[in-house]
Amino acid sequence: TQNEDGSIPVNEFLETNVKNIFAGGDIAQAPVYVSDNQKFTIGHYGLAHFHGKIAALNILNKKTPVKTVPYFWTMLFG
């Protein structure tokens, strides 16, 4: 199942509503730890890498919940 914006909702293990199918990165609407695990879709290179690691651990049956604290390095106006 996908959301209206095209993102795919996943649980705390990055698993979709289809057993053993995982999603991460820009397409995943995943829990964000610092927001009481509310689900958000965040397009960020570093977060996509982290999601990949967590998904891989769960694919290998090493149950690991995603606990993300997104950060961005941004410089505005010079």
The residue fraction in helices comes out at: 10-25%
Which runs of at least 5 residues are low in confidence (pLDDT < 50)? none
Shape: globular
Number of strands: 3
Task: Specify the number of helices.
Answer: 1
Q: Sketch the topology as an H/E string, one letter per element.
A: EEEH
| CA-based gyration radius | 13 Å
User: In angstroms, what separates the terminal alpha carbons?
Assistant: 42 Å
Question: Strand order across the biggest sheet?
Answer: 1-2-3
Largest sheet geometry? 3 strands, mixed
Structural account:
This protein has 78 residues and is an alpha+beta fold. The protein is built from one helix and three strands; from the N terminus they run E-E-E-H. It has one helix at 45-59; strands spanning 8-9, 28-32, 38-41. Strand 2 (28-32) and strand 3 form a beta hairpin. The longest helix has 15 residues, at 45-59. The model has no long low-confidence stretch (mean pLDDT 90).
In short:
This protein is an alpha+beta fold and 78 residues long. 19% of the residues lie in helices and 14% in strands. The termini are far apart.
Keywords:
alpha+beta, 78 residues
Secondary structure: elements and pairs:
Elements: E1 8-9, E2 28-32, E3 38-41, H1 45-59
Parallel strand pairs: 1-2
Antiparallel strand pairs: 2-3
